[in-house]
Design goal:
- This protein is mainly alpha-helical and 288 residues long.
- The protein is built from 13 helices and no strands.
- Helix 2 crosses helix 4, helix 3 crosses helix 6 (125-139) and helix 6 packs antiparallel against helix 7 (147-159).
- The longest helix has 47 residues, at 20-66.
Length: 288
């Protein structure tokens, strides 16, 4: 009966206000109310189930992905362990994640896990994007992944209902983030090496040393634009809009509310930190 309350009330009000033609409008508005109300009722019941499906799909698919190029490298295993460590999983959760990763390596297909995950979450593309972030991290553990690995990543995106354009956009943004982080690490290593030199020559010496051995500021700025998903010619307002959109998509609390396990919140937090850092770098470089 609950799912008909909105339609009944809507039809009555529609008839009273607009006459017989108002019934159809009232039914439509009531239908929208019923659907939203039903989702609210089921949210708490499905939350634990969605989180379990997310967790299972992440590590099953990660294990299956690792075997796609014919072997599971030490880097891929280390990447999976690092992802588990970053999640700050409990001992039981870590053991379960490792079991799923190992199981995924031997499976002929992990599509059933993707289908279960998608069926429980509907078309929640923010969750799907976050799921793909974990897979991208594993895929890039050995550097640029082979085409067979990229093909499987695209297959996962398609199984989750992402269009090719949507998938390529998420991948392109991840690649920019990956390069952005690499250059930050390179810069930190470069700065440490410079400050430890005995013939420290102040700012002029720093500039000379940076020009000879340091990372390219221009390249890092390019990656910052890519991370936000905008062109280098983007206006201040376009950059701000892209920043807000990405912060909204990867907001940890919102992702957890939609079904991402709380243990994965740290990864989402790191993602938003990268987005913020890229935004601040662009503003600084542009003088905005």
């Amino acid at each position: 009966m609950t799912t008909w309350i909105g339609k009944i009330i809507g039809a009555i009000f529609g008839f009273v206000i607009l006459g017989p033609l108002g019934i159809l409008l009232g039914l439509f508005v009531g239908h929208l109310f019923d659907r939203q109300f039903s989702n609210m009722l089921g949210h708490g019941q499905n939350q634990a189930e969605i989180q379990a499906a997310f967790f299972e799909a992440v590590f099953l698919c990660m294990g299956h992905l690792a075997k796609k190029d014919g072997r599971v490298s030490e880097n891929e295993i280390s990447a999976a362990r690092q992802i588990m460590a970053n999640m700050q999983l409990s001992e039981a959760q870590t053991l379960r994640a490792m079991e799923l990763f190992t199981e995924g390596k031997s499976l002929p297909s992990a599509d059933f896990a993707l289908e279960k995950f998608k069926s429980l979450t509907g078309r929640n593309k923010n969750l799907f994007r976050m799921f793909l972030q974990f897979q991208f991290q594993a895929a890039y553990a050995d550097g640029q992944p082979q085409e067979v690995v990229l093909a499987y990543l695209r297959h996962m995106g398609a199984k989750l209902g992402l269009t090719q354009f949507e998938f390529e956009t998420v991948l392109r943004i991840f690649q920019a983030q990956y390069s952005f982080y690499q250059q930050r690490a390179q810069y930190n290593n470069f700065y440490d090496a410079f400050t430890q030199r005995q013939n420290y020559q102040g700012y002029q010496g720093y500039q000379q040393y940076q020009g000879a051995y340091g990372p390219s500021p221009t390249s890092r700025l390019k990656d910052a634009f890519g991370l936000l998903g905008v062109a280098e010619s983007a206006t201040k307002e376009e950059v701000k809009k892209a920043y807000r959109r990405q912060m909204n998509e990867y907001h940890p609390d919102k992702l957890v509310a939609k079904g991402m396990p709380e243990s994965m919140m740290k990864a989402a937090t790191e993602k938003t930190q990268a987005i913020k850092e890229a935004y601040e770098l662009i503003n600084q470089a542009k003088g905005w």
